[in-house]
Design goal:
Length: 438
């Protein structure tokens, strides 16, 4: 190669002047004949690295909350403390919760005993007591009936008196307005008393029916529906007991993950509210680097790609990272796409907030860049002319515009990094034309 060779250097392509091409032909399928011509050659190289800057964030940050409300009895950790999953962070007062558990337990015990009695059937003493209750209810019903009859007589008398006074008041002046009002009051009083005795009589009848039903139930034993209803009551009270125990257990707030306490928002004696954050715990054995990449680079970054992470404040040695998230959606009002890289931090050298540089070689599917002048158009197809063992070889390509001067071509079996292509092929260049370096 002589001193007239040139160097081409776009972003993803390095170009080197390789030599000269001579010979031409109008037929791409035959060797060239006739006058020779010189052509500049350029050498293709693999794409350069992509470098992205971002900040380190914890792999996991958990807001520790209390599931229930209550007064804080003790706080067991300070900010900066290393905790393990299950460690007790906060203990709420439990006196009221313990009482609720005891009450719920008593309800379950009573319901279970009632169910056992129903399943065993009524005893003779219970039958006798129910018969006595039925007799008492019937006696009360008879008394209520007598009271209804007495109140009915009183109402009839008050009605007759009111009607007489009303007629006299309307037809003559022998009855005053005061006498009429008094008669009206007595009538309303009698009517109310009658209605009350009717209601009492009806209630007494219901008591008789209830006492009769209980006696018949005791004599015949519990029905399937009764047993099912009692079993359901046992289940309901058992669920209430579980809920009370759960509330008691929730009074002990534990660490949900291994990590470091970075913020504490509660003190002993304060009231903890359900759902309010008490602590922030971060998990730092792995960290993530959040970066953003432009839309013209996003296709080169794939999930699972191994990258280098350089953190100047953590030393000169780069860290190994893996791309774990590539957002398919750009950040609103921008053309940048969020990307996350996960980095092992078992040694604890990386801290949240550090600035990091992520370096990646890009996509596994490399695109090469060539000048538009290197693309030859024939028969509606696009070709680049390769230097293959000193002879010209036409390789069909599909192009994608990069800018006004350059296009992308996909790397293939014929077109690879390191090959030389003709920079400015003319329409006469043919397959098999001999190349001769100047």
């Amino acid at each position: 190669m002589n001193r007239n060779h040139k160097l081409w250097a776009p972003a993803l392509l390095s170009l080197a002047l390789a030599g000269a091409l001579q010979g031409c032909s109008t037929d791409p399928g035959h060797a060239a004949a006739g006058a020779k011509a010189s052509y500049q050659l350029m050498q293709l190289a693999q794409g350069s690295q992509v470098s992205l800057s971002g900040k380190i964030i914890p792999d996991q940050e958990v807001k520790v909350v209390s599931k229930g409300s209550g007064k804080v009895a003790a706080v067991n950790v300070e900010e900066g403390a290393a905790v393990h999953k299950g460690d007790v962070l906060v203990q709420l007062e439990t006196d009221d919760l313990l009482q609720q558990v005891r009450q719920a337990q008593s309800g379950v015990t009573g319901a279970q005993a009632k169910l056992a009695d129903l399943q065993a059937g009524a005893r003779p003493q219970e039958i006798a007591a129910l018969e006595s209750a039925l007799a008492a209810a019937k006696a009360a019903q008879e008394q209520a009936g007598a009271a209804v009859q007495q109140a009915k007589a009183g109402l009839d008398l008050a009605t007759s008196s009111y009607n007489r006074l009303r007629n006299l008041y309307d037809s003559s002046s022998s009855v005053s307005k005061e006498d009429l009002d008094k008669g009206t009051f007595e009538y309303e009083k009698a009517r109310t008393a009658y209605e009350q005795t009717q209601a009492a009589h009806k209630a007494a009848g219901a008591q008789v029916e209830a006492a009769q039903a209980k006696l018949e139930l005791a004599r015949s034993g519990a029905t399937d529906n009764t047993l099912k209803a009692t079993e359901a009551e046992v289940n309901r009270l058992s669920a209430a007991l579980e809920l009370a125990n759960s509330s008691l257990n929730n009074a002990t707030v534990t660490a949900p993950v291994d990590g470091i306490v970075v913020k504490r928002s509660i003190q002993p004696g304060e009231m903890a509210q359900a759902g309010a954050a008490l602590f922030s715990v971060v998990k730092m054995d792995r960290v993530q680097v959040e970066v953003s990449t432009a839309d013209n680079q996003i296709a080169k970054i794939k999930t699972g790609t191994e990258v280098q992470v350089k953190v100047p404040t953590a030393g000169d040695q780069p860290f190994k990272g893996t791309v774990t998230f590539v957002s398919p959606v750009a950040t609103p009002n921008t053309s940048s796409f969020p990307v996350k890289v996960t980095v092992d931090n078992q040694e604890g050298k990386l801290f949240a907030g550090m600035v990091a540089e992520v370096v990646t070689a890009g996509s596994t599917e490399q695109k090469l860049e060539v000048p538009k002048s290197a693309v030859l158009q024939r028969d509606g197809k696009s070709y680049v002319v390769l230097s293959d063992n000193g002879k010209a070889k036409l390789a069909e390509v599909k192009t994608e515009d990069k800018n006004a001067e350059w296009v992308y071509v996909q790397e293939s079996g014929e077109l690879k990094a390191g090959q030389s292509i003709v920079v400015n092929p003319d329409a006469a260049i043919a397959e098999g034309t001999a190349l001769k370096a100047e």
